[in-house]
Every structure is written in C-alpha cells, then in structure tokens.
Amino acid sequence: MKKLIAIGFKPVKQGPMTLVESANVTQTHGVEQDFFGRPGKRQVTVMSNDQWQLVCAELESSPPWTTRRANLLIEGHSFSAADQGKLLRIGKLTLEITGETDPCKKMEAARSGLEAALAPNWRGGVTCRVLNDAMISEGDSVQLLS
Q1: Tens of pLDDT, residues 44-88
Q2: Cα–Cα–Cα angle for 98, 82, 122, nearest 5°?
Q3: Is 136 helix (H, G, I), strand (E, B) or coil?
Q4: Backbone phi and psi for residue 109, each to the nearest 5 degrees, phi listed first
Q5: Please, are residues 17 and 10 in contact by the beta-carbon 8 Å criterion?
Q6: Are 136 and 7 in contact (CB under 8 A)?
Q7: What are the beta bridge partners of residue 8?
Q8: Where do the domains of the chain lie?
Q9: How far apart are CA 55 and CA 37, in angstroms?
Q10: For 32, left (φ over 0), alpha (ψ -120 to 50), or beta?
Q11: What is the pLDDT of residue 139?
C-alpha cells in the first residue's frame, strides 16, 4: 500500500527541517510555512522511502530522510521518468509531478557521497505543483494517477 509516512518543511532558507504530523498544503504556499512553497513547478518535493533506503545502503549509513530536504516522504512507490506529468493524490491533496528533484552540492555538503547516491533513477524524488488546497496527515493513502 502506498502511503504518506512523513511531512517536513523549511521555515527559513537553509534552516533546519521542521517535522509535523499534519500540514495544510495550498496552491499559494505549498506546505504551509515552507520557505520555498511559492507557486510554480517546484512548489512541493516528494521523496520515496523505498529509494531513500537504496541511498542509505549505498552510503552504508542511515542519515535521516530530512537530510534530502524534501517536503513529503511516501512509501510503496519508486519514482521514475515515467511519472512526470502524472498526478499524485495524497489523501484529498492532488499534486502534479513536474519533474525530478535533482540532487545539488548541498547534498554533498550534508553527507559525503549523498549527491552521487541520489543521482540515479530519480532517487532524489520529484518536484510537484499543488492543484488544490488540502490538509494532509501521516498515514494518508497515496495514489499515482495517469
């Protein structure tokens, strides 16, 4: 079963991630209180726990998923190029997958080898546009729609 297992946001640029059990996600602000939540193709980022576990195995360590600095962590699906343009429904929230979240130099600064471990097969997650306002919570079901 695909489900949402964690929610995080960055209240200030380059600040620490704040974890919450529920969040309001809107078309104007993304994950409420997230510094980067303005409208656009990269409004919300979603990462697969299945793919994060591959990254951890490659690194031979288990840094917290928030090291990646994504907003949402799901389980039960691994992202790929075939997902671009599809809709991701999390509870009552609908997101449009707009592309891959490319790993950047910040990942290497956070953990040696992380940038390279995130690079293959969309392991860094996906960028999304918010299509409707909704409250989401850990444990919400996740569906990938064509």
Answers
A1: 999 999 999 999 999 999 999 999 999 999 999 999 999 999 999
A2: 70
A3: strand
A4: -65, -35
A5: yes
A6: yes
A7: 19
A8: 3-145
A9: 26
A10: beta
A11: 98
User: Which CATH code for domain 3-145?
Assistant: 2.40.33.20
**Residue 92: which residues within 8 A CB-CB, separation 6 or more?**
132, 134, 135, 136
Amino acid at 92: K
Cα–Cα dist 37/139, whole Å: 22
Asked if 145 and 86 count as a contact pair (C-beta separation under 8 A), the reply is yes
The pLDDT score that the predictor gives to residue 109 is 79
What's the first-to-final CA gap in the chain, in angstroms?
18
Q: In a 10 Å sphere around its CB, with 0-12 CB exposed, 13-18 middle and 19+ buried, how is residue 111 labelled?
A: middle
Residue 15: exposed, middle, or buried by beta-carbon count in 10 A (0-12, 13-18, 19+)?
A: exposed
Written as six digits, the tokens of 41 are: 């193709």
- For the stretch 103-114, pLDDT in tens is 877 887 788 888
Extract the tokens encoding 32: 């409420």
Q: Kindly report the pTM of this predicted structure.
A: 0.94
> Residues for the chain: how many in total?
146
